[in-house]
Amino acid sequence: MEVENSNTLWASTNSGIFRIELTANKPLITHLTQTDGLPSNAVSGCVIRNDTIFIGTSKGLGIFAIKKLLAQEKSIPEKVIINSVTIENNEYYQPNRPLSGHSNNHVIFNLSFPDYASQGKISYQYKVEGLDDTWQISSSPKIIFNSIPPGKYVFRVYGLGYNGKPSYTSSALAFEIRPRFWQTWWFRLTLGICTVMAIITVISYQLQKKRNKKLEKSIMKRRSQNWSCKLSKHRSIRISFTIV
């Protein structure tokens, strides 16, 4: 803990440094982290001399004028530019309307973030609403998605400066992935009906085959009985002639 004045003190933690100002109503707490210029969020201690604070971190010493440190913007006054989007091998430059394409193709977003103060040390925080609400971070300006299932989505992205400070707002673009014909409900319904009909046809064929075999056996049995009767009559006639 470091005392700034009778009403204000600073607390060092592993998640940044806190300035606690005791007021009449409730404490006014300001949380400062790496996004505010600290070398690291792991702060081991601080020392105040006049209007300057010396903050020791796991990645070195930070020296700041207190007024300037507190007056820093919490975000970068720029936003990410979506330069182009590639869907189904078609590239759309600076799109300003919802896009669409079929599934089983790459969807590629080409981005840029005009934060020149970061000297190229920028990254992108993004997510696809409707697919995965988890934020991802990439240092590459090219974001690639593979085999997105059919549906309607919104790609949303923030720019991050060299110290992790975000852009003041996000950039977003809506897009739709249309199903291939074999992914549509009517194709699946037709395929299901055809499958059921094929099964019924096979079962009917097997049953008819069994009935035919049974009928053939019955016919053969009757023929055999008829031949037996004829032979018996023929023998009886021969015996009668012999007796005469």
From TrEMBL:
Organism this protein belongs to: Chryseobacterium arthrosphaerae
Keyword annotations: Membrane, Transmembrane, Transmembrane helix
UniProt keyword annotation of Membrane present: yes
Domain of life from the UniProt record: Bacteria
Domain Two component regulator three Y: 115-177
InterPro entries the record matches: Ig-like_fold, Y_Y_Y
Transmembrane region(s): 185-207
Protein name as annotated: Two component regulator three Y domain-containing protein
Phylogenetic classification of the source organism: Bacteria, Pseudomonadati, Bacteroidota, Flavobacteriia, Flavobacteriales
